[in-house]
């Protein structure tokens, strides 16, 4: 605490002493829990910084997105082209020139790192960055992981640029050292031979599905067809981070055990960015990556699946990977771009600055406008965040609080399904409640017996939006078969079902579902299985209870394939 006070005081002195007028742009009270001050970096240390420029009409784009995503709208499903999106998101010429001229006056040349030119990258030194942003970059260590990062607790920008710069990164946003890998249990070698294969294609749910989830269980519980997709263009993307690698051999073994009705040679494509890769071998097997690939290839039968491996050649681990991934996908030709993207990584909202969170959320809205359904696992810490922790107030997760993506919680059991107690859910402290979920959330807030309202922001965006099975889900990793738990299981399952719906829509000559939430909270609500029991304890409370209608544990519920087809007009 003494060091924190010193840094903030030093910044105040610096701000008071500079001749050029500066305005503090972002600040935090101290480093997040788990980080400690680790000294002052040399002024000659090289750093790479990203500057987000204010977009010319992002609000207009988001209003357009809600319009084309709402089933009752006359323009429903009229997804936008990348050039159309860029017209909304590019900075004005005045904004662009003001920032670039300021950088040039300091001997710096900015490289554009986004389709719309709203993100710039500069390479500089700690000393020059301190002067540019009237700040004091320091080193912060994370002893548990042994990693060290250069960050600051506050930074300023020239007052003349206050309307031009959205955020500078990495500055006050600290990385997520763990990356939100799933809870794992029971991974051990087994000689089981397709415990559920005998039930393939039947609508009766095998009794074993009450305790062990396989693709056959998902097909039976949610009525998902085993027949192959026919369009060939209902592309499904699976993002991979933190050196999690999907294994072809493990997928083959998984299909042999749990989907013997399709060729075990069925595989996935690979794309890489930021130095990403996908090395093959038992020692390279990533439980998360294998889970995500096996429950997309294994459920979205015949849908083209691409594993997008995001490397660590960025400035903030997962966060910059998310931004880079958005720009990567938006820059792809629409014919090969995934129409559904599932991601099983995230972090606590309070580890991301509000400005940085808003910039990433805005980026998600651009993908939604292009017709991409973005799904994220909600987290595995109940009301205590992405993973269980001690807390006095509930901890929302990020990016689940962003209103322009679909957050997926977890369930367990079959008769009926109940909430998985780790399923993260709650209300954002950064993002206001969007109109599409207003009625559903208001109904929930009138429910008797909710936690003390002082523990959460009842006016914030509620999450998750939907849910799917997430307990003892069988995978193969490193040649071993076993079960995993987590909302990490639920997101690829739900994404696979949306991809199969998209395949039917494409075959019928209709547009894909795109940004899902306005549909889910209107026509789609009746096509979901309402989960009304269980809760998500944490922070020394019982958390939120699941109940009739939407709740911040399982959202609107789990998918019913046949009813979803009806809801989309098929």
Automatic annotation (TrEMBL):
GO terms for cellular component: extracellular region. InterPro entries: Peptidase_S8/S53_dom (IPR000209), Peptidase_S8/S53_dom_sf (IPR036852), S53_propep (IPR015366), Sedolisin_dom (IPR030400), Tripeptidyl-peptidase_I (IPR050819). Pfam families: Peptidase_S8, Pro-kuma_activ. The keyword Transmembrane helix does not apply. Binds 1 Ca(2+) ion per subunit. GO terms for biological process: proteolysis. Ca(2+) binds at residues 530-531, 549, 551. GO terms for molecular function: metal ion binding; serine-type endopeptidase activity; tripeptidyl-peptidase activity. Residues 1-17 form the signal peptide. It catalyses: Release of an N-terminal tripeptide from a polypeptide. The active site is at residues 288, 292, 488. It is found in: Secreted, Extracellular space. Its cofactor is Ca(2+). Residues 212-570 form the Peptidase S53 domain. Keywords: Calcium, Glycoprotein, Hydrolase, Metal-binding, Protease, Secreted, Serine protease, Signal, Virulence, Zymogen. Secreted tripeptidyl-peptidase which degrades proteins at acidic pHs and is involved in virulence. This is tripeptidyl-peptidase II.
């Amino acid at each position: 605490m003494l060091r924190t006070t010193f840094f903030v005081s030093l910044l105040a002195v610096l701000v008071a002493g500079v001749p050029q007028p500066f305005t503090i742009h972002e600040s935090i009270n101290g480093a997040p829990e788990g980080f400690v001050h680790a000294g002052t970096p040399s002024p000659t240390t090289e750093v790479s910084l990203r500057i987000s420029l204010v977009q010319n009409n992002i609000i207009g784009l988001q209003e357009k997105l809600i319009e084309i995503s709402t089933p009752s709208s006359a323009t429903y499903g009229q997804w936008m082209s990348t050039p159309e999106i860029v017209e909304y998101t590019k900075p004005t010429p005045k904004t662009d020139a003001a920032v670039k001229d300021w950088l040039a006056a300091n001997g710096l040349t900015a490289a554009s790192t986004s389709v719309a030119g709203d993100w710039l990258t500069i390479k500089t030194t700690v000393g020059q960055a301190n002067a540019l942003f009237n700040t004091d970059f320091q080193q912060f260590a994370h002893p548990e992981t042994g990693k060290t990062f250069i960050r600051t607790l506050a930074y300023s920008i020239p007052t003349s640029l206050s309307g031009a710069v959205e955020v500078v990164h990495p500055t006050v946003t600290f990385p997520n050292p763990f990356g939100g890998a799933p809870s794992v249990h029971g991974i051990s070698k087994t000689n089981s031979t397709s415990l559920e294969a005998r039930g393939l294609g039947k609508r009766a749910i095998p009794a074993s599905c009450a305790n062990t989830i396989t693709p056959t269980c998902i097909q039976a519980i949610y009525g998902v067809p085993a027949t192959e997709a026919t369009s060939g263009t209902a592309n499904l993307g699976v993002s991979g981070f933190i050196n999690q690698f999907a294994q072809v051999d493990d997928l083959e073994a998984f299909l042999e055990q749990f989907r013997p009705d399709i060729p075990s040679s069925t595989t996935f494509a690979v794309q890489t960015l930021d130095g990403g890769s996908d090395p093959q071998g038992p020692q390279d097997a990533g439980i998360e990556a294998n889970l995500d690939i096996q429950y997309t290839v294994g459920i979205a039968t015949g849908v083209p699946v691409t594993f997008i491996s995001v490397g660590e050649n960025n400035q903030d681990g997962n966060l910059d990977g998310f931004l880079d991934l958005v720009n990567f996908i938006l820059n792809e030709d629409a014919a090969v771009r995934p129409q559904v993207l599932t991601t099983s990584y995230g972090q606590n909202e309070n580890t991301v600055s509000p400005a940085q969170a808003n910039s990433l959320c805005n980026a998600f809205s651009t993908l939604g406008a292009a017709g991409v359904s973005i799904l994220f696992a909600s987290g595995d810490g109940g009301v205590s965040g992405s993973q269980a922790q001690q807390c006095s107030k509930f901890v929302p997760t990020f990016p689940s609080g962003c209103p322009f993506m679909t957050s997926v919680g977890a369930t367990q059991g079959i008769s009926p399904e109940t909430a998985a107690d780790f399923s993260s859910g709650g209300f954002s402290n950064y993002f206001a409640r969007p109109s599409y979920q207003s009625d559903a959330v208001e109904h929930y807030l009138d429910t008797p017996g909710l936690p003390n309202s002082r523990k959460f922001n009842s006016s914030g965006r509620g999450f998750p939006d939907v849910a799917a099975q997430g307990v003892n889900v069988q995978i193969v990793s490193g040649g071993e078969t076993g079960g995993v738990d987590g909302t990490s299981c639920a997101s690829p399952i739900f994404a696979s079902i949306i991809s199969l719906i998209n395949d039917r829509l494409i075959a019928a000559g209709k547009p894909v579902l795109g940004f899902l939430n306005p549909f889910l909270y209107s026509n789609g609500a009746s096509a979901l299985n309402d989960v009304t029991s269980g809760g998500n304890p944490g922070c020394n409370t019982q958390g939120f209870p699941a109940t009739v209608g939407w709740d911040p544990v399982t959202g609107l519920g789990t998918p019913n394939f046949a009813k979803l087809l009806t809801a989309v007009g098929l």
